Amino acid sequence: MNVRGLAMKQRYFEDLKAGDRFNSGTYTVTEEQIVSFAREFDPQPFHLDAAVARQTMFEGIIGSGWHTAAITMRLFVQTLNFAEGAIGLGVDELRWPNAVRPGDRLQVETEIVDLRVSRSKPSHGVVRLRNVTTNQRNEIVQTMAASALVLRRIDGITRR
Amino acid sequence: MNVRGLAMKQRYFEDLKAGDRFNSGTYTVTEEQIVSFAREFDPQPFHLDAAVARQTMFEGIIGSGWHTAAITMRLFVQTLNFAEGAIGLGVDELRWPNAVRPGDRLQVETEIVDLRVSRSKPSHGVVRLRNVTTNQRNEIVQTMAASALVLRRIDGITRR
After folding, report:
1. How much is the pTM?
2. What pairs with residue B145 in β-bridges?
3. d(CA B36, CA A123)
């Protein structure tokens, strides 16, 4: 398989093993995006208006943690590229140790923690993973542990 | 205080006690919003295209769990209306037991679990809470436990 084929391939449960690590592409978040997300989903003063935000403990506008979580999902999905997608089962230990600010360039490192075949849905496997999101100074802006359901190859045959 | 005053008032740490419950307003999510959120943050087949989604285990388009989380934040923020906002410290036990589908009308019930003054930031208190998000059939579409930092009244005087 050539490099292009590798980059484009769809991933199945069997393609992963515990300890695997993946680095995503990057996503640069603008002040306009921060304000637009906050207006729709998290209308709080430190996310909405730079002048007001300067008066807060953050001393400037910061992104909603849910915006960081959404950007993290985008980077994760594009990097892992699971066949038929990854179905989120749950998330724990979602933390935001540093604020995201306008112009920050975010990147996600995914670590596969463990893998098992699903009992209730044997066509799929359950993947436990950790996602760590960092900014351009390598400061951690988000950590989380997640479980997701991903498709298995059936009898060694890749389904399409 | 009249009803209007109650509805508009900003809430402080001291206004809450463990066991308090709050019901939010409602938010009806459209297929267009589901697809638009997914294109930006969670580009997976069961969130993006109704025809493709019909072939999946969901038998139709469903919303991203991160979209549900974002809508939940909006409903929570508007209902609790904390003075100077609530600063998210972390989230655990985020689960999506039922899918969100186009036209679903979501509502959040918040339960205050416990409260303590912040050690590192004595101007604030730490509130632990649970948010349960339901649809118009009263099915649970999301549960979560969260901690947030909210402003205290200083010496009984409401800061502005």
Report:
1. 0.92
2. B92, B130
3. 29
